[in-house]
Design brief:
alpha/beta, 524 residues, 43% helix, 21 helices, 5-stranded mixed β-sheet
Length: 524
């Protein structure tokens, strides 16, 4: 009978890793864990202390991993080497991440692999297929990429442009056909051992892939098709996963248990960290006995259909993966709502310094807001607006915190509605400001309602309308009766704003007083 050695690459959340390893080994399978060497040493110790006595768990030699780098391939190879040595009776090696969970019983998975003497790995022709939808394609291979695109963007692209200018294009190693596909594969033991021998024998190929971009989508795919007869390779992954329009992975939640079980896959990715009920059910499913399954496998077809309808303008209801996407139940989002952006930014900066709350200014209103690399979703206001919760979730993850503060324009009430309907706790502090005619005149010019050359008569007609519009926006927010809604005003003395700031941020009155007395807080 099949015995699976899981290859797990991970870098955080030791408790979840321990639960995952215990669950996957509960039915007699085994697991090799590669824990990123750049991650917390304390977290790794917690994992090894909890799992060190489990004979079905082994640990790979650790390397520091970076997205898009060879290090991810090396970490995978190290885990494969460790599993090959530790588990000589393993028949299959299955790559998983910390976000993966089984969606079939272990007995079903074993029977399935026994009945299919093949390797499951996506392996599309790199140059002829349309697997890469946007961005760099051939140049991933033809030029050497020495720098991490996310951490050293300027060096990455400057090096790339310099090579193109100097004509330093290189060829693919002889006798190799480059393939591309998902990194979530399931390979037979003899295939894994052939890949490990290939790594030792073809130093030229390894050298080539070490400086390609995103080699975890090409190295194993290329090696397997080079080593294994085509008829013994199935061009698919056994892990069910879907991606949004901008390459964001679709996340699954508690109410999608039956949906996941009906897919023709053994695992699913990504399971939300908040989907505790779903995780418990799937854990019991894997370790339990056979269950009746109704495999319809409509997931990707449904996704493609609904996505197409959306592009054609015929989608009237929210897609289930959009409706269920969440920032996170355990997280707290603090929103400063203010029409005078410079005032909110001053308060945000003061809150960061005094209370240590990480913040981002008008990221959904201002194109040039400084943001970390979020995989492209942060590039334009339109992308951010379409995927607000995904943006915030990524920012929480990047900042490694459960509290973030942002600024929002009062006109962006749809943003507040969206966040208040999320599982996270949303708090709003309205910063009410006075607007004299001079400010409103400047606002009209800044927003294109008037020009510097507009006559005084024109401006006098526009100013009352703008004032009324500002008042309407404020009233519309108040009429929502949001919970956790607080307000301060430039008409108050700083001492009068302390309690509202203290309650809004859940900080001491002394810290709130320091923020309330921020120099020139309300100055134009």
């Amino acid at each position: 009978m099949a015995k699976i050695a899981y290859i797990l690459l991970c870098h955080k959340d030791p408790e979840a890793i321990i639960r995952q390893a215990e669950g996957l080994t509960s039915a007699g399978d085994c697991i090799a864990i590669h824990f990123d060497a750049s991650a917390s040493a304390a977290d790794f110790k917690e994992i090894t202390d909890a799992l060190g006595d489990n004979p079905n768990v082994t640990f790979a030699k650790r390397v520091k991993c970076g997205w898009g780098e060879w290090s991810l391939v090396q970490g995978s190879l190290n885990a494969m080497i460790a599993a090959d040595a530790a588990f000589p009776d393993a028949t299959h090696f299955y790559m998983v991440s910390g976000d993966c969970m089984a969606i079939k019983p272990a007995s079903y998975a074993h029977r399935f692999l026994d009945e299919h003497d093949v390797d499951f790995i996506e392996c599309n022709d790199f140059f002829e297929s349309d697997w890469i939808k946007t961005g760099m394609k051939e140049d991933r291979l033809h030029y050497r990429h020495f720098f991490n695109e996310r951490k050293s963007k300027a060096l990455f692209y400057n090096s790339y442009r310099l090579q193109k200018t100097l004509g330093l294009k290189r060829d693919v190693p002889k006798g190799i056909e480059i393939k591309i596909g998902s990194q979530w594969w399931c390979l037979r033991r003899r295939t894994v051992e052939a890949v490990l021998r290939f790594v030792n024998e073809r130093a030229d190929v390894v050298r080539f892939f070490k400086t390609t971009w995103i080699p975890d989508e090409t190295f194993f795919q290329t090696a397997v098709l080079h080593l294994v007869p085509k008829q013994e390779v199935v061009n698919r992954t056994l892990t069910f996963l879907m991606f949004s329009d901008y390459g964001m992975p679709v996340t699954f939640f508690n109410d999608q248990y039956d949906f996941l079980l009906s897919q023709d896959s053994l695992f699913a990715r990504k399971i939300s960290p908040d989907a505790l009920d779903l995780k418990e059910k799937l854990g019991q499913l894997y370790a339990g006995g056979d269950v009746e399954l109704n495999i319809t496998d409509e997931g990707r077809t449904l996704y493609k259909f609904l996505t197409t309808r959306g592009r054609e303008g015929r989608r009237f209801a929210t897609r289930f993966w959009e409706r269920e996407s969440t920032i996170g139940r355990e997280r707290e989002l603090l929103v400063l709502v203010c029409k005078k952006w410079h005032v909110a930014k001053r308060l945000l900066e003061s809150a960061e310094q005094v209370a240590g709350v990480r913040g981002f200014a008008y990221l959904f209103d201002e194109q040039d807001t400084a943001l970390p690399d979020l995989g492209g979703i942060e590039k334009t206001l339109d992308k951010r607006a379409r995927h607000r919760r995904a943006v915030m979730r990524l920012l929480f993850e990047q900042a490694a915190t459960n509290r973030l503060m942002i600024c929002a324009d009062p006109a962006n009430i749809a943003l507040l509605d969206d966040f208040y309907s999320d599982r996270c706790t949303t708090r709003v502090l309205e910063i009410a400001c006075s607007f004299d005619d001079e400010y409103l005149r400047g606002h009209a010019i800044r927003t294109g309602l008037a020009a510097h050359s507009s006559s005084e008569d024109t401006l006098k007609r526009i100013i009352p309308t703008i004032r009324m519009d500002f008042s309407y926006e404020s009233n519309a927010i108040r009429d929502r009766n949001y919970p956790h809604f607080y307000s301060i005003s430039d008409r108050n003395e700083p001492e009068d704003n302390i309690m509202q700031i203290s309650t809004f941020m859940d900080i001491t009155e002394d810290k709130a007083r320091e923020i309330a007395h921020t120099p020139y807080l309300f100055a134009d």
